[in-house]
UniProtKB/TrEMBL annotation:
Keywords: Nucleotide-binding
One Pfam family per UniProt: ThiS
Name by which UniProt lists this protein: Molybdopterin synthase sulfur carrier subunit
Protein family per UniProt: Belongs to the MoaD family.
PANTHER family reported in the protein's UniProt record: MOLYBDOPTERIN SYNTHASE SULFUR CARRIER SUBUNIT
Tagged with keyword Cell membrane: no
InterPro entries: Beta-grasp_dom_sf, MOCS2A, Mopterin_synth/thiamin_S_b, ThiS/MoaD-like
The keyword Nucleotide-binding is assigned to this record: yes
Length: 84
């Protein structure tokens, strides 16, 4: 199990009520399950539209259960942004 920081941006930050928080998770899927358990409701809906960066690298279309998290790593939660 890795200790990671989940950082929320824009609508995800508003829905979570915090800019970032720590989680213990081995994969992105486990981290997102923990986020949903801690923040049921609006954040769960926002996550459906988000893209994710793991330590600065885009997850893209990879299955979240296959994306391993490094101890001390960061998961960036990026809702769709308007404009450039």
């Amino acid at each position: 199990m890795s200790k990671v920081t989940v950082r929320y941006w824009a609508a995800a930050k508003a829905a979570a009520g915090v800019a970032e928080e720590p989680y213990d998770a081995a994969t992105l899927a486990e981290a997102l399950d923990a986020v949903r358990a801690r923040h049921p409701g609006e954040l769960t809906r926002v996550l459906q539209r988000c893209s994710f960066l793991i330590d600065g690298d885009p997850v893209g279309t990879r299955g979240h259960e296959t994306v391993r998290l490094a101890d001390g790593g960061t998961v960036e939660v990026l809702p769709p942004f308007a404009g450039g």
